[in-house]
Amino acid sequence: MAIVNDGAMTVDPTVLLAHAKEVRSRADQGREELASHRRNIEDAAASWGPSSRRAMSERVAEWASDTRTIVANLENYADMICDAGHRYAAQEEQNTGRMNSASSSVGRDRLNLA
């Protein structure tokens, strides 16, 4: 994602976006796995006594709530990574344009770019 070399940081927006896609994929996977576990627990609990079934149902509801929060946080994190990649690329493009404009108006030899 970011490489620091001799005090200069470079960022590869493509790698950032790929990482964001992976994070989002993991969030989706977590959501699917919770749904699967929940179905399995509910199926198993069908043969339990009422108080055990109720207690398990309460725990599953807590897990579901926590998982929704975790998944939402992962999705937000992925969105922020994407946004950072896009902003970095836009800033680099803007900086390149400014440097090109400055070098053409002053002269590359005076900027020690020749």
UniProtKB/TrEMBL annotation:
Cited InterPro entries: ESAT-6-like_sf, T7SS_ESAT-6-like
Domain of life: Bacteria
Pfam families: WXG100
Compositional bias per record (Basic and acidic residues), positions renumbered to this chain: 24-42
Compositionally biased region (Polar residues): 92-106
Gene3D superfamilies: ESAT-6-like (1.10.287.1060)
Coiled coil: none
Region: Disordered, residue numbers: 24-53, 91-114
Official protein name in the record: ESAT-6-like protein
Organism of derivation: Gordonia araii NBRC 100433
